[in-house]
Amino acid sequence: MTTPHAPLVAFFDIDGTLIDSDPEAYAAAQAPGASPEEQERVFLPTRNVRDAVAEFVDAGNLAFLCSGRPPSGLALLMDSVPFSGYVALAGALGVMDGRELFSHTVDRETMARAIGVFDECSVAALLEGTRGSVVFMPAGEHPDIDLSVPVVTSVAEAVAAIDDLALVKAFWMAEEDGRLDPRREELAGLFRISDLGVGGFELTVPEISKASGMADVLAAVGDHGTVYGFGDSENDTPMLEAADVAVVMENGVPSVRPLADVTAPPVSEDGVATVLRAILAGEL
């Protein structure tokens, strides 16, 4: 039950929604020695979008990031835009007003099976956890992955990282996705595999999602008004389905477009800013 003055709550995906970033730019921004300009391009929305989020919050509402990125990939954005908190790692970690709300883990054996498949199919994967990340680089030819995280080449090292880093998800480049076809059915029986629409794919467990993270955040928020979810890719599906109003970017991948209650202009045209101002004007 909500009161007449209960705050609206908005959850925002980042890549393809708040920020028009491509995989090459993201890799360059993560590399050692990246310039401030490269980092801002990947980690900050345009000034127009930042201003619109600030206007939404200044009106008494709450805004949260809801991303597959780890916390390190959210820091600059959190410092530059008045978000109340975030759901990171596609639902595994949640923070509000600077305090941790939840931190979920994935069964060690389940993650080890995924690593085994990556090894057998020779797929390089960025393995991400609540305590850090590592690139697993099995034998074979792979696209360049120039990130400022450690690289391991053996299954044993990658499996050891499950506990050390509390690994919860994986990312691989679209160029390598076809290599997983012989084991895709097996993976799909254990994990959610999402096309991120930015040149890569993400693997998560079904019980941890942006929707489960939203639910935990909303429980901490308490009394609230309409919940909006802004997204563009398949890993946003749980968030969009859980929101009262699903806002899908015009540049969204085809599989999520039917979920839209509202279709926003593309990220390249600051679609988030357009929709937020329509909400504040009482038009949505």
Description:
With 284 residues, this protein is an alpha/beta fold. Helices cover 33% and strands 22% of the residues. The chain has 10 helices and 14 strands. The chain has helices at 23-30, 36-43, 47-58, 75-80, 108-120, 155-165, 184-190, 210-221, 237-242, 271-280; strands spanning 9-12, 62-66, 85-88, 93-96, 99-103, 125-129, 132-136, 151-152, 167-173, 192-195, 200-204, 227-231, 245-249, 262-264. The protein has an 8-stranded mixed β-sheet. A 6-stranded mixed β-sheet has the order 8-7-6-9-11-10. α4 (75-80) links the parallel β2 (62-66) and β3. α1 crosses α2 and α5 (108-120) runs antiparallel to α6. The longest helix is centred in the middle third of the chain and has 13 residues, at 108-120. The two termini are 20 Å apart.
Descriptive keywords:
eight-stranded mixed sheet; about 20% strand; 14 strands; alpha/beta; 10 helices; six-stranded mixed sheet; globular; single chain; about 280 residues
Task: Describe the structure in brief.
This protein has 284 residues and is of the alpha/beta class. The protein contains ten helices and 14 strands. α3 packs parallel to α10 (271-280) and α5 packs antiparallel against α6.
